Amino acid sequence: MREENALPDPPFASLTRYPPDAPLLFCLPYAGGDVSAFWSWRQAFDGAFDVRVVTLPGRAGLVAEPGALAPEPIARAVAAHLAAHLAAHLAAPVPHAADRHPPYAIYGHSMGARLAFEVVRELRRLGVHPPRRLYVGAAHPPERQETLARWTGLDDEELIEELINRLGAPEALRSQPEVKTLLVPALRTDMAWLRGYRHTRQEPLGHPIVAFAGAHDREVVDPEMLGWARHTSSWFRLHTLDAGHLFLNTHGARVAEAIIEDFHGAGSPERPGEDEVHVWLADLTRLPEACEATDELSPREAGRAARFRHREHRDWYVGRCVVLRRLLRDYGVETGVEELRTRPGGKPYTGTDLTFSLSQSGGLVLVALAWGHEVGADVERLRPLANERAFCEGALDEREAAEFAALPEEMRLPSALRTWTAKEAVLKASGDGLRVDPALFGFAGQQPGAAWIPDTAPEVARLAEWRVTHLPLGRAIGAVAVRSPRFRLRFETVRQGPQPHRVEAAG
């Protein structure tokens, strides 16, 4: 079969009315989905984007041809059709940007996100002008196995039950045989694609990746989507919605609004929602301008910076202070070069309902911000412990120390850093800091991926109210502590420039 024929004809379904100069948004649906997966976007994008949904094999009762299900032919076929569509736009007498390349982006949901990622890499191989953004929704990063790939052995009824119970599909699927007749073959087509998918390492993409997660998604929890940040050399952002896996059906208009604002750079900063924490990660090695902006320091900060003997340490200290002050200003808190106010115990505060916590490990800075409630954050680079014995004696309780000693050596470092970042985040959130011995509370027996709850000694029982969420950050581990058992995570990497770009919250 010729690869250009791997997609049905026509390869795209048009979703919106649009002016001639409208930017393009190519959409790849979730497993089993077709153009109807994006119905909620018809009105939201109407007049703003030329939205085209890719038509994948095995839909509308059609059986996919043998060979059409392999990941590489599908990705190459989609990329070839996108390239042809973009070339046609380039040849048309339409007033685009000065470089004449039509502005476009790609959105993929769940399985569609993985396919979109491979399509963008194929476009790069073809030498096609890159998209302005890759938008991904409800999807593990490509090196992780997707859930549907593990469901290939289920019969039709079992598959429907998993869709309802795990992914939030409508319960009406049980009693709609005509829908199942169309849906199940398409699902099995896509499951074959996922089963055959193998991620290969390449250079990161050179354009931003913006991710969307559902706070109630049982399969792709929001911190797991941070893994997408490793696949771009540009910046990354994560929005979390108060929704499940299929948030296109329930919060489609909100996702569309966020895409429009992001694509055009419009909108004004918004504070975090009451159920939300905004987290920013700054790699100071990529922010040389911030590390030299000593004129933005307070007198006390400038004096401390001057006392550093090593230039790198001095630059990192300046950078962390400048990043924090710029972020606070971006959220409406003008600090100027005044000293930050502190509470008894030394915890800084803004004098408003905006709270924050800062942590630094080498050239990495993590800043968490919340509105109307306290937050604590910590980050640690993955680097060997200088003294394991001293760490265990000073930081772990007896149960934690026993668990640590029983671990295989290759698991000790990430386990130690998960425990340490959790304790630091709790102590920063509570304001106790160094006044509490970290061995007086612990997290023995708690598993990665779940919210951690402190087990405390009687004298620090107040710490039991905090809940810790870990952030997998590639070469580092982060942790955020809040009182609520769940919160919506809004994550972004800080970009180089005179000040960080604006912030907007996904609601």
TrEMBL record:
One example of a Gene Ontology biological process annotation: lipid biosynthetic process
Domain Thioesterase: 25-262
Protein origin, superkingdom: Bacteria
Similarity comment: family membership: Belongs to the thioesterase family.
InterPro entries in the record: 4-PPantetheinyl_Trfase_dom, 4-PPantetheinyl_Trfase_dom_sf, AB_hydrolase_fold, TEII, Thioesterase
Protein name: Surfactin synthase thioesterase subunit
4'-phosphopantetheinyl transferase domain boundaries: 375-447
Keyword entries, A-Z: Transferase
Coiled coil (UniProt feature): none
Molecular function terms, GO-annotated: holo-[acyl-carrier-protein] synthase activity; magnesium ion binding
One Pfam family hit: Thioesterase
